[in-house]
Design brief:
homotetramer, 256 residues, alpha/beta, 7 helices, 28% strand, globular
Chain lengths: 256, 256, 256, 256
Amino acid sequence: MVTRMSGEIDKTGAIPRVLVWNEYRHEREEPAIGAIYPHGIHGAIADGLRHHGLAVRTATLDEPEHGLTEEALASTDVLIWWGHMQHQAVADAVVERVRQRVLAGMGFIALHSSQDAKIFKQLMGADCTVQWRDDGEKERLWVVAPEHPIAQGLGPYFELNPEEMYGEPFSIPTPDELIFVSWFQGGEVVRSGCTFKRGLGRIFYFRPGHETFPTYFDDNVRRVLANACRWAAPTIKVTGAPKNQNQKAIERIGAN
Amino acid sequence: MVTRMSGEIDKTGAIPRVLVWNEYRHEREEPAIGAIYPHGIHGAIADGLRHHGLAVRTATLDEPEHGLTEEALASTDVLIWWGHMQHQAVADAVVERVRQRVLAGMGFIALHSSQDAKIFKQLMGADCTVQWRDDGEKERLWVVAPEHPIAQGLGPYFELNPEEMYGEPFSIPTPDELIFVSWFQGGEVVRSGCTFKRGLGRIFYFRPGHETFPTYFDDNVRRVLANACRWAAPTIKVTGAPKNQNQKAIERIGAN
Amino acid sequence: MVTRMSGEIDKTGAIPRVLVWNEYRHEREEPAIGAIYPHGIHGAIADGLRHHGLAVRTATLDEPEHGLTEEALASTDVLIWWGHMQHQAVADAVVERVRQRVLAGMGFIALHSSQDAKIFKQLMGADCTVQWRDDGEKERLWVVAPEHPIAQGLGPYFELNPEEMYGEPFSIPTPDELIFVSWFQGGEVVRSGCTFKRGLGRIFYFRPGHETFPTYFDDNVRRVLANACRWAAPTIKVTGAPKNQNQKAIERIGAN
Amino acid sequence: MVTRMSGEIDKTGAIPRVLVWNEYRHEREEPAIGAIYPHGIHGAIADGLRHHGLAVRTATLDEPEHGLTEEALASTDVLIWWGHMQHQAVADAVVERVRQRVLAGMGFIALHSSQDAKIFKQLMGADCTVQWRDDGEKERLWVVAPEHPIAQGLGPYFELNPEEMYGEPFSIPTPDELIFVSWFQGGEVVRSGCTFKRGLGRIFYFRPGHETFPTYFDDNVRRVLANACRWAAPTIKVTGAPKNQNQKAIERIGAN
């Protein structure tokens, strides 16, 4: 009778299964970056999440199907995405597969320059352009929603020094929730932690993480990512993306 | 150094402590209502929440300080409020005590005619007026945010028959999140499940629950209330409401 | 100095230039529909808008470039879109042209089954699926934001009888503003008037308008569309969509 | 038939009638401030608005009924409020009169330290506490919603130097729209331009304007205030605040 959309419970108490995706080119091609992230950006992120008790796997661009096979996604509650220079190298079919899975309920966390990734722009419905400067400067992330689960355990702010600058105007859709706003030494601000919903999936954009800085070893950053994974994990059983559906009337239609 | 607002963790895995508050006059003064709710509306709500594993106490209008002493609130994570005819009988000092606790992070769930309660209107900053009709008719609550934790375990809709009608325009502030929209047999709709944030506290308004109908014995209603308690429970340590605070500069101020 | 995004005034007091786009196949291929809309759905919409004082042109699918040339868009403040069965027949290059113009500030109004149009889904970042039933039944649109410019001049509700049913769950992103919620005789509700922003463009989705019913001759519908055109018209000079831009520091960067 | 809430048009093309309210104590009691604002803060604001073509009157705390009589409010489309040290001196009856008028549709613009005014806190439903520092430092206001009418005619940012600092956490309810975010030299950020709706009234909070700085002579600040008045002016006929109302059924109720 009640078959329009599944609402079965599939999560209570379970540990979210996180898949960390990374281009993994900078680290292999540029020794200075490889020295910062010897196990890749994905490796550093995965370590941090494991420390926070999450179940974590990784995948990278140069694996078959970028490591994002149907099987891999089918066992993923939350997908974390780091991309920068190789957005165009991601196959459209894989982007569509990920998009379908997000609409079906998988959580999605886009990091830093992934604001320009195909998958993120498609999910946002906008180009998410931003002002930027890669001079290395102090970023101070202010918590504007201290009560939000993603901010749990943080102080009123934390700093990353140095980081790349991203500034407003940041042409994202209106976020459902604004969690962080960043102050930059060079004079800019940016909405640096934002949530969105698309289909049945929860999405979090988190700004920091330029490849030349050890951001993903920072304790506050790791805490944010762990919190975000728990927040983004689906509360429904992920089966398929919603479809247009013809429905019979529940009440009697006609002259009355 | 980082002392502007507390962000300490106080909840991970803990069972929310819920306090159910009720006027408890209808049930004692009107036999027909007493027959539906022999242990009071608060009793029925409390039973449902205990069935879902929550830690529950109750309080009523005619207790000293309406049962809402400093001590009672200090051990409460989420306060549920049911009021109807005696809104003016609630002491202003108690309203202010509850308000301070919500701003400090306590969850708050306002039920049905509590849209007209002092505490709810003060927290909303609006009079939250609504169209109504107490003829008894079918209400069908549609889930418009199936992925939201408050909708966890529900189908696409559920019905209550009969219920009182509440209709738009419902002059609440824009909800942060819209979870339910109700269809009424008499021709109206209303936003029937809405979330808000005030200070550090999470607030949920849930429409159903007229005193002459056994709404709080309904399995779906009980599930919604249990979900809402878990959603509204604070993720921060509740110490005090935020204050205006003078702050020293973090960066050097001056000509540059 | 201040060149990151144009904010020049281009509109004060000017009459919005509206372009009404329609598939225009149903009306030519199905006599019963042609009898309802002898000048096409676009013709009926355009008449209504002209009556309200707007500057209106039309374009249809079977014109060269679907009538949506660079020149046509360059002189358009607000584009209204009606599509149903031929979504796939719209060329991707034209969709991208329209999308760029919306991101650059052109208003966009999507009608009825255009929730499934390429351009609307791309702008939303979701598939915007809906429940539907084409039995012909009463729809009552309730105004939930009476103070909004799009609701100006309306009563608390208006009716269309008969109309097609669209019901929740309607898998759109969280609207920036919710203006209308519809009640259907068959038992459903749907968020039937919603606003969104993408890039610099304002977007309005309005549900009614099945091709077999004379909806676009209805006075209330025409008023809503005229109001929406005025609301969606750009307040900035539309030059181009925002781009990622490298920026020099405003303040001095360095150890301090 | 359709009498639940008035939606009559009362504004098309009309010039908004603005009432600028000010404590007007600092300027008379402190010579240094009087030298900056010889005609009061209200005088400087009024001059700026008149330059932008609005119809402006002023009122101050020490006038009978604070200059906010029923008659004064009855001819006011938008009320601008500047208060700082005398929040408690504003009579509760006047606060309630203003509140009723906002709920009925009058626009309301709260400036700077008016985040702590009785009327603003009552309308917000929160204490709107903020971090502050009055050392005099550079504020840079970034436009995060360039397409919004309140930002019309501005560049990507503008500066005020010096100004008082206000910083996050700023415990306001979630804004309906976020227009400005400020960067401060001392290291903070704050949401400095925010819109809200209460009842039928539109509300704008705008941060700048400490009494010791000539902020209200700044061209960008004046433009923002003029834009905000046009945005906040009611689109409905302002008659009274919404009431709870008993309604007859539109459709037949009963077994079906």
